[in-house]
Design brief:
20 helices, four-stranded mixed beta sheet, MICU1/2/3, metal-binding, mainly alpha, 2 domains
């Protein structure tokens, strides 16, 4: 049995932005619950919409077991894991939220994230401890729900979580600001032993009704008895960040070792709420007439820095308090002091030429921090496609590659 998206389209009206995006890209259904494949997840974080109209294909128990049997163990992970798995994997909605958080988590925060799951403090995380994450995400998500048709919301929760959940009594009134705290902030505030104890009891009740997923088998083995250590957890998170960045970079590099400065600007601005992106692009074209290119290492270092944006914002605020704008040398120093990331002079110059709209060779808090905070909400806010201009240089690059 297959169901088209239009069959349950009305549920979209009762979904949060995260839920809507998951439903839009998910392609599999098992016992009424929706799942993404690894390919679906990659598409969800690198594209504005699925490449092809999809149906939710129903998996049989035998098909699901075969997929899970072919899942590699965590020690075989790599920065090509999701691309290698492609359609042979299942990712639940709560795991989708978890993976999205990983993409914006600084490396220094990986240990904190691991310790949140390690409730008994034995430096290892077992399957039960990891499943507590699902309850925390579910509770967090329900607090963000708008009031609506309770029957529809119940159907949606069953579709996303695979089991019925009680209606949350703490719903936001219509019109109230629904901007959430981050999920990691929720985790940090939810790690008291008492709360984990309560959630662990609930996990005992519902775990029998939950199906294993690719992520659970990857972390804890086919029997679910393995434990996850920090080194493997760190490697998985680092690999996922690298893999998504590689995919974005390669989609613009056309087989070359660099992407153009203009393409770099497109990638930075694609998930922001900037209304007039053409002014940023035109400003950069005028300021950098000769293309030098951005390497993958420069590209990766910038996004590592971006994941530390909150710490950097504090340094930027100090310049604001002193009524000082920030030049390229100050910017590079502030990045290193706040995040430990060294950005190349050419990369810093490119960033300035993109965001220094008034062309005073200074960068203000408003010109940069506000826009980049939007960028960190990859896929969470409304996606606004940016027209990709074709320049003579990019045509030459494509022609050279095609040969």
């Amino acid at each position: 049995v297959t169901e088209t998206r239009s069959d349950l389209e009305d549920l979209h009206l009762y979904a949060t932005p995260r839920e809507q995006r998951f439903r839009m890209f998910a392609s599999l259904e098992f016992e009424g619950q929706l799942y993404m494949t690894p390919y679906d997840f990659i598409q969800a974080v690198t594209s504005d919409e699925p490449k092809h109209a999809k149906k939710w294909r129903s998996l049989s128990k035998q098909e699901l077991n075969q997929i899970l049997m072919e899942t590699p163990p965590v020690w075989k992970g790599s920065s090509k894991l999701f691309r290698n798995l492609n359609e042979k994997g299942v990712i639940s909605y709560t795991e989708y939220l978890f993976l999205l958080c990983i993409l914006t988590k600084p490396h220094a925060g990986f240990r904190i994230a691991f310790n949140m799951f390690d409730t008994d403090g034995n430096e290892m995380v077992d399957k039960k401890e990891f499943l507590v994450l699902q309850e925390i995400f579910r509770k967090k998500n329900e607090k963000r729900e708008k009031r609506g048709d309770e029957e529809k919301r119940a159907m949606l929760r069953l579709q996303l979580y695979g089991y019925h959940t009680p209606t949350n009594s703490v719903l936001k009134p219509e019109g109230e600001d629904l901007v959430p705290r981050s999920y990691w902030d929720t985790l940090r505030r939810s790690t008291s032993q008492a709360l984990f104890s309560d959630l662990a009891e609930r996990i005992e009740d519902i775990s029998s009704s939950l199906s294993d997923t690719t992520l659970l088998v990857h972390f804890f083995g086919k029997k679910g008895k393995a434990e996850l250590n920090f080194e493997d957890f760190y490697r998985f998170m680092d690999n996922l960040q690298t893999e998504v960045l590689e995919i974005e970079f390669l989609s613009y590099s056309n087989g070359m070792s660099t992407i153009s400065e203009e393409d770099f600007a497109h990638i930075l601005l694609r998930y922001t709420n900037v209304e007039n992106t053409s002014s940023y692009l035109e400003n950069m074209r005028c300021s950098i007439p000769e293309e030098k290119g951005i390497t993958f290492e420069e590209f990766r270092s910038f996004f590592q820095f971006l994941n530390n944006l909150e710490d950097f914002a504090i340094a930027m605020q100090m310049y604001n308090f002193a009524s000082r704008s920030i030049g390229q040398d100050e910017f590079k120093r502030a990045v290193y002091v706040a995040t430990g990331v060294k950005l190349s002079p050419h990369l810093v110059n490119t960033v300035f030429k993109i965001f220094d709209v008034d062309r005073d060779d200074q960068l203000s808090y408003k010109e940069f921090i506000g826009i980049m905070k939007d960028r960190l909400n990859r896929g969470f806010r409304g996606y606004k496609p940016i027209q990709r201009y074709t320049t003579f240089k990019s045509c030459v690059r494509k022609e050279l590659y095609s040969r």
